[in-house]
Amino acid sequence: MKNYFQKILTLFTKNEYPKSTQQEFYRWLVDKEHASEKEDALLTFWQEALQQKIASNTHQSYELLRKNANIPFTRKERKIRPVHIWQAAAAVFFLLAASSIYLSTIGKDAEPNLLQQYIPTAETRTLTLPDGTEVQLNSQSTLLYPQEFTGKDRSVFLLGEANFKVKPDKKHPFIVKSNDFQVTALGTEFNVSAYPENAITAATLISGSVLVEYNNLNSQVILRPNEQLAYNTHTRRHSLSNPDMMDITAWQRGELVFREMSIKDIITVLERKYPYTFEYQLKILKEDKYSFRFKDQATLSEVMDVIVNVVGQMDYKIKGDHCYLIPK
Asked: What is the value of pTM for the model shown?
């Protein structure tokens, strides 16, 4: 039986199908019958993909899955850190699941018209949803939402980071879903950070009130203004804090703020902020934690000058669209 589900998943990822067939696949995937077997098949497929060294047939399978899920092509592969390809593939699986969850919530007879907003590297963008909710999306973020909200709630799916100013509607709660993490609001403003490469998913309430559900939606917390819940998807542990709201919303103003972050994690953020690929050997990066704040629209050179000066034993060189980290 297990091999049967794996064969279905493999067929779907290695071939192109019409939209009607894709919709049927999504419905089958979320049907409660044999749910655990399907989940195991997805996990096995993912683990096998991670073990491969970007073989050509695996890369083609990823591209077909990306195309079927309507995900824009990722800018570039990293030469030294090929794991980024599979982080991108994780995004495909996320949106596949998001589409499936949405279909399962609206009923079997409905045909939703899902829209996708993707924000390229080094950009942010603001859009207004069909209900009037304003959303500001951070770089390398994807928002999946219906062309029209018609159900009992207003559900959207986020991959990345966004700030939501929710249009009040007490009869139709606004829900932001991200894997096993979701935030429910009636009319409020909050920030959600849910990048697939980060172990931490966080919701920060700016005003109003929100219900945050996590740990496969088995746990929940009601946040107060200026309160943040951070959930580690690996350890399934959470923490509550009261961060500086100016830090949380800094990205909306084009600023960069790093609080107690490793250089590796800082580089991950810089690759979203700037259209450059970082090249380095992992052994030159320290595990020490650093804090930095950079002004609005600081150039990459300005940022790196400060970082290498503070870190020491490391220099950088920008050539074309690459930034090379060099040991001193």
From this structure: 0.70
